[in-house]
Amino acid sequence: MAVFSVAWYAISLTTPNKLLLPPPADVARALQDMATDGELFSNAAISLGRLLLAVSAAAVLAIPLGLAIGRSRLWEDLFELPVEMLRPISGIAWIPLALFIFGIGTMLPLFIMFYTAFFPMVLGTAAGARNIDRRLVAAARTMGITGTVLMRQVILPAALPAILVSVRLAVAASWTAVVAAELIGAPSGLGYALDYYRSMVMTSSVMGYVAVIGVLGFLTDKALRLLGGRLTPWAAERPR
Amino acid sequence: MMRAPYMVIRVATRLTVPVLLLVLWQALAMASGSARMPRPSAVLAAGLALLASGDLLAGLATSLGRVFAGFFLASAVAVPLGIVMGSVRPVERNLDPLVESFRPVAAIAILPLVILWLGTGSIAAVVIVAYAAFFPVLINTIAGVKRIEPNLMRAATTMGVPAITRMRVVLLPAALPSILVGMRIGLGIAWTAIIAAELAVGAKAGSSGGIGQMMFVFYAYSVELNGIVVCMIAVGLVALCLDWVLRAGLTWAVPWSRG
Fold it and tell me: What is the pLDDT along chain A (240 residues), one digit of tens a residue?
């Protein structure tokens, strides 16, 4: 890390044009300026808020649907084909059409993130619900547990580790998508700020925002890992 | 005799939702009353026209060329680096913080910097793709190398196999399944990244070619929504094909891996 910073500093010294590669200190100063006048925080809050809203909306739809697909042949037959047909069309490919439908604004990033988050969660939940230990379900059935109680007390806890992993994947994918969506079609947020400073050729601010996007992505993943550990202590994450 | 009606019912069930969605789409488009609203029938016609004129294939070819160039660049760096990081402790300890701090920065986020440094041509697109594909390949290579049964390496060392041969005969075959999985993920991400890059470059800084740019032109200049939908479907089909090809390559190259 230290070597990297020194190398960055050295290259920035030998680059004649400061706009192309500002030294680390300039980026730090730009970050400090943007933090003191609050725009950094308001943009980050907007993007994180959109992330939270879109992913929760997607989760509310995707997790029940995934459970149904994983546990019932009929639901699987009904929904597997449409999911497999839509999934390869990435959320980002929807941006031009969504721009036309929603216009530039908050709905566009929300829709793109919702779409991006939806598929990993449906597939992950369905796989989790499908791979439950059969003996658990059989034991519960023997004891006369069926229907909603079976779903809530047996299937959901057993599938929860897989569901949480898919939520993490969905959040990571959405975080990529929000930057792309805001870059192209939103009047606010981190992606918008990034492109605003690019068009102003304020490279140190651009690099500052790049760093912030990376740090926030890293922190959300950390937070979700922690939450996953709390919610499902029985499923200690295997080292990867 | 009993199986046939059952199969018919299953096929019919599987087709229900897609057909309903198509009907709903057509109905919504007709109800909206706008001639510009894309509808299935018009999309089909637009798709045939774009195929016949060769524009669609040309756009796809440009984008695919960039994806493959970037992907091979990324693999050429990430696989050797991953093998070294996975087998030499100090190298991993020193490089890992750097990798982990760049990994959460999406390829799209560095797009403004890349435009600044390299302009808006093919080179910039290739760099974005290479950056996007680099991390999955690297991480999976490291994981694959680390997961090798240590006794395999020890046995080879005991039998006096020289280090280079050891790498070729023991390490590489054992790590290959994981490396190829990383490549599959990386190629998928690369395809998404190229669309985003071409869209954003098209939206912000002029021409660059490729399927993403084509979509943006349909949106911004000719307002040809049917064309956009055709491009979306093409993007999805290419993503599917890329995944199939790599999956087939995986089972062909490493028949010993199940999964």
Answer: 666 767 776 676 666 666 667 777 777 888 887 777 878 888 888 888 888 999 999 999 999 999 888 888 888 888 888 888 888 888 888 888 888 778 777 888 888 889 989 998 998 898 888 888 888 888 888 888 877 888 878 888 888 888 888 898 889 888 888 888 888 777 788 888 887 887 777 778 888 888 888 888 888 888 888 888 888 776 654 443
- In the block, tokens 């042949």 appear at A73
Which residue shows structure tokens 């309903």? B20
| Interface subset of B 117-146, CB within 8 angstroms of A | 117, 143
- DSSP letters of A8-48? HHHHHHH-S-TTTS--HHHHHHHHHHHHHTSHHHHHHHHHH
Q: pTM for this structure?
A: 0.80
Residue A2 touches partner B, C-beta closer than 8 Å: no
Task: Give the up-direction half-sphere exposure of residue B91: CA atoms within 13 A in the CB hemisphere.
Answer: 10
- Please provide the DSSP assignment of B128-184 as one string: HHHHHHHHHHHHHHHHHHHTS-HHHHHHHHHTT--HHHHIIIIIHHHHHHHHHHHHH
Nearest to B143 by CA among B87, B68, B93: B87
- CB of B220 within 8 A of CB of A88? no
C-beta separation of A165 from A121 below 8 A: no
Query: Encoding tokens for residue B229?
Result: 């939908």
Under 8 Å between Cβ of B236 and A93: yes
CB contact under 8 A, A179 and B106: yes
- Fill in the amino acid letter for A27: V
Contact of A39 with chain B, judged by CB distance below 8 Å, is answered with no
Contacts of B223 in chain A (CB under 8 A): 100
